[in-house]
Write a structure and sequence with these properties.
elongated
């Protein structure tokens, strides 16, 4: 649908709910405006870059619709963060700017939490190029404001006016932008409530469930191969790094154990233990089959290639959102797609913490607990 004139009641409610939902995701200094202003300026640049890719690649850039919606949402997030610091109500700013003249329009129509993003692919036009340049100019003007600047609200109104013009020129729904960003921010930054996280095999018999508690002994022999043993029985095949420069990938099964314990998902681990959900043919084929295993193995290898550049996350307490977003794209269509980015972050960081310990000691015992969604390390022969 094309944009409709600003609906005051809908917009007020939508933006009030949005501001409240993303406030807890703001981790920037609460008493400083400049870092937030720089963030907003950067996101406007990303929005322009996204449109440039569409111009360059045309229909080949099939992700443009979601990408531009996401970029508009990121700009909105920083705008909301500025308003919080300057004690300005986000919804009042939009209502004032949106009703400034007839050229400024919004697409706000029956936007609920169940709204699906099914917008047609926007078209890059000369009008859009023009309004994006104007948006960039308005963003640069904001860089000079501070919490005591009397001209701040006027500059913010001008920016929001240009922002709304840009949304109208693209043709995406403003409601979709708001909901997309609200979900993204909370998915990424709100600590998951384990009690509310999905348990994918809860309806199956115990022999078709991943073990709720497990201890797996990882050893390395003189040949350099790693072996796994659970309950005194060897599982899987011996592994080497399969690369010229040794990097410890022979111990990568630790990541599958982390996924099993924290995400409650690992087709690879399920296959190793021969605990596939064969009582349900659809689940067995679509969630536990060969393709799902390949997806998980490919995902583990991809994250590993990124982790190598970061010393395997040794000094990191978070994972970049770009990596988490790629991870979520990897697993689209599989049950683990229901897990938020914040839970993936825990699984990755905790998995690599144990991996580093196994690698440094050339073995050890990996302890997993699905009840607590945790994984930890113990030296062989030692105590927890």
């Amino acid at each position: 649908m094309r944009a409709a004139l600003l609906d005051e009641a809908t917009t007020r409610s939508l933006l009030q709910e949005y501001a409240a939902s993303v406030a807890l995701t703001d981790r920037l200094p609460p008493d400083k405006v400049q870092p937030v202003l720089m963030g907003l300026f950067g996101e406007v640049g990303s929005l322009m870059a996204t449109s440039k890719k569409r111009l360059r690649d045309e229909d080949a850039y099939s992700e443009y619709s979601d990408a531009v919606c996401e970029e508009f949402g990121d700009v909105l997030w920083y705008l909301g963060a500025i308003c919080r610091r300057m004690k300005i109500k986000l919804e009042a700013l939009f209502l004032d700017a949106g009703n400034k003249d007839n050229a400024t329009r919004l697409a706000v129509a029956n936007c609920t939490a169940e709204t699906r993003l099914e917008a047609s692919v926007p078209i890059i036009s000369a009008k859009l190029e023009h309004v994006l340049i104007e948006l960039g100019q308005a963003a640069s003007g904001l860089l000079a404001i501070n919490a005591d600047n009397e001209a701040a609200r006027r500059l913010l109104l001008e920016f929001v006016n240009r922002y709304l013009r840009a949304i109208d020129a693209v043709g995406v729904r403003f409601g979709d932008v708001v909901l997309f960003n609200s979900h993204k921010a909370r998915d990424r930054f709100i600590k998951p409530n384990f009690a509310e996280m999905p348990v994918f095999d809860s309806g199956f018999d115990p022999e078709e469930q991943l073990p709720w508690e497990f201890e797996i002994e990882v050893t390395q022999r003189k040949s350099g191969q790693s072996y796994l043993r659970m309950n005194g029985v060897f599982v899987g095949d011996p592994l080497t790094d399969n690369i010229a420069d040794s990097d410890g990938y022979r111990f990568h099964d630790v990541f599958h154990f982390a996924y099993a314990a924290i995400l409650h998902w690992s087709p690879t681990f399920r296959a190793l233990l021969k605990q596939k959900r064969k009582s349900n043919k659809v689940v067995d084929e679509s969630q536990d089959g060969g393709r799902a295993i390949v997806v998980e193995e490919g995902l583990a290898a991809y994250i590993f290639s990124r982790a190598k550049r970061l010393e395997f996350f040794a000094s990191h307490d978070r994972v970049s959102y770009d990596l988490l977003k790629t991870v979520q794209r990897f697993v689209q269509g599989y049950e683990v797609d229901a897990c938020p980015a914040s839970l993936w972050e825990i699984a990755i960081l905790e998995g690599y913490k144990v991996f580093r310990q196994v690698r440094d000691n050339e073995g050890g015992v990996v302890i997993g607990n699905r009840h607590d969604r945790m994984i930890e390390y113990r030296k062989i022969g030692g105590r927890g």
